[in-house]
Amino acid sequence: MDKVFEALASTARRKILAYLGGGEMSAGEIAERFEFSKPALSGHLRILEEAGLVARDKRGQFVYYRLVPDRLANTLYGWIAEVCPVAGPLKRESRARARGRTAGRHR
């Protein structure tokens, strides 16, 4: 979860994600939209990939990037569940029910 939030901390990386929201793009197409160096772009894309937010596919001499939307959605849901005021009691209730089912099987 920390890697996702670290990746989202950068405005440039959030912009890259927004561009990829429109569909798959090559590294060159992404680079056309920014004024930073190729090594800087590679660094941003690497961070997004390591966080599991984007996936890359090398086709010939080109590298294409696409979003991995489930990763972002699951991370945000997990974080919201942690800070939500009702999440604690619901988690405790779920654990208690799970323990009750497990205890019933061992009798």
Automatic annotation (TrEMBL):
Keyword set includes DNA-binding: yes
PROSITE patterns assigned to the protein according to its UniProt record, in alphabetical order: HTH_ARSR_2
Keyword Transcription regulation attached: yes
InterPro entries, per database record: ArsR-like_HTH, HTH_ArsR_DNA-bd_dom, HTH_MetalResp_TranReg, WH-like_DNA-bd_sf, WH_DNA-bd_sf
Gene Ontology molecular function: DNA binding; DNA-binding transcription factor activity
Alphabetically ordered keywords of this record: DNA-binding, Transcription, Transcription regulation
UniProt-listed Pfam families: HTH_20
Domain HTH arsR-type residues, every copy: 1-87
Gene3D superfamilies with a match to the protein in the record: Winged helix-like DNA-binding domain superfamily/Winged helix DNA-binding domain
Protein name: ArsR family transcriptional regulator
Native source organism of the sequence: Fulvimonas soli
Classification of source organism: Bacteria, Pseudomonadati, Pseudomonadota, Gammaproteobacteria, Lysobacterales
